[in-house]
Amino acid sequence: MAKPFFPRLRGNSRGCLAFEPFFLIPYSMFSTYATLYMYELGLTEVNIGWITTIGLIVQVFSSLLSGFLTDRLGRKRAILYFDLLSWSAATLLWAISQNLWFFAAAVVINGFQRVPHVAFYCLIVEDTRPEDRTYVFTLLQFIGVVGGLFAPLGGILVAHYGMVEGMRIMYVLACLFMTFQFVGRHLTTRETEAGIQKRLETRQLGMKQVMVEYGGAFRELSADRNLLLIFAVYILFNFQATLKSTYLSLYLADYLHLNSGILSLFPAVSSVIMLLTLWILMPKIPDGGAHRSMMAGFGLSAVSNVMLVVYPSASLFWIGLSTILAAVGLMISSPYLEAAVQNAIDDDKRAKVFSMLSVLILLFTAPAGIIGGWAYKLDPRIPLWLVTVAFAVSYLLLYLYRKRTIRNRRISSETRAG
């Protein structure tokens, strides 16, 4: 019998990752130009900030419901129904957008992405052994990296058809490819054991009882200092990602006057560097080196942003060097952070706790768009300074988390020995 690719992938993790390129490839193509597309259709920097913030507010609402819906519908149906709504329908609406109101409607629909987001993590994690979860998230990061290699195709479409028509084509393609992914993943995965159990339990409870349970889970969460620390790191990580993805392309094109056709090259460069990092550097990171790897990654990411604001040059070499540092930093931190967060949550409480984490993330990142818009208007460098500060604080929090984890393990060992 032929040896399967990625033998450590089993069951749902294999089914989920096999179809993930059909989402990430079109996403990498249009995400580079999404802000510029709005700008081209007449939206101002502040309009764009409001659009981002409205989307995040809707995501707060959908996050509040995501745990309940994931438990009530089951992981598979929740992810299928709400992916079709939040991505297939939204990309189609973006493709025909004409003004601010089209974008507002699309971002409201897209805001329900938090339901499939929670369901996806439950589906991919619950039947995967804890020791294999870093491996799964590394492969997920790898697929995202490969998807980034296709970003220049978006640049080719923009160069040939112009910003608006090129983006409309990309959004239509995204709708088709993403819909294929959602259906394909649904057919090749099965409901998790935890999902079946939670679906049966939730059907016997009323909404009021469910909300009472969530309140209790919030209290449990607030009492766990270690969980709060790693969640704080994850929240800051998402805050900087929102701010950077919204304003970096605009900063390079509008402030540094970089040709918009060249912008798509940087995600491709980033992807190549991340692949090399995955191939050469990550195998050398020891099993016990996850925390140090994350801290090093945060440090490199902070330096990459400082480079762009301290010396704001349109030099391809300088921007390329910053891109390389950011790519290495992301690759050696993100998979470990994802695994650390998931391993900190019990399977029985995963949907509830992760949905609460999503709410906390969004409550802190919802102002990012409008703050970034105002900050960019004051000085285009300020959003990148905010990203740098987020990485610096994350570094300190992770240092505290590492110290507490080592101390707790030592106390646990001494207790068992005694």
How would you describe this structure to a colleague?
The protein has 418 residues and is an all-alpha fold. Helices cover 81% and strands 0% of the residues. It contains 19 helices and no strands. The chain is globular. The N terminus is likely disordered.
Tell me the fraction of residues in β-strands, as a range.
under 5%
Helical content stands at over 70%
* N- to C-terminal distance: 50 Å
The tally of helices reads 19
Tell me briefly what this model is.
The chain has helices spanning 12-19, 21-31, 34-40, 45-73, 75-95, 100-110, 114-125, 133-148, 151-161, 163-188, 193-203, 207-223, 225-255, 265-281, 290-310, 316-331, 334-343, 350-378, 382-417. The chain has 418 residues and is mainly alpha-helical.
Write the layout of secondary structure elements.
Elements: H1 12-19, H2 21-31, H3 34-40, H4 45-73, H5 75-95, H6 100-110, H7 114-125, H8 133-148, H9 151-161, H10 163-188, H11 193-203, H12 207-223, H13 225-255, H14 265-281, H15 290-310, H16 316-331, H17 334-343, H18 350-378, H19 382-417
Helix pairs in contact: 1-10, 2-8, 2-9, 2-10, 4-5, 4-6, 4-7, 4-11, 4-18, 5-6, 5-7, 5-10, 7-18, 8-14, 8-17, 9-10, 13-17, 13-18, 13-19, 14-16, 15-16, 15-19
Keywords:
418 residues, mainly alpha, 81% helix, globular, disordered N terminus
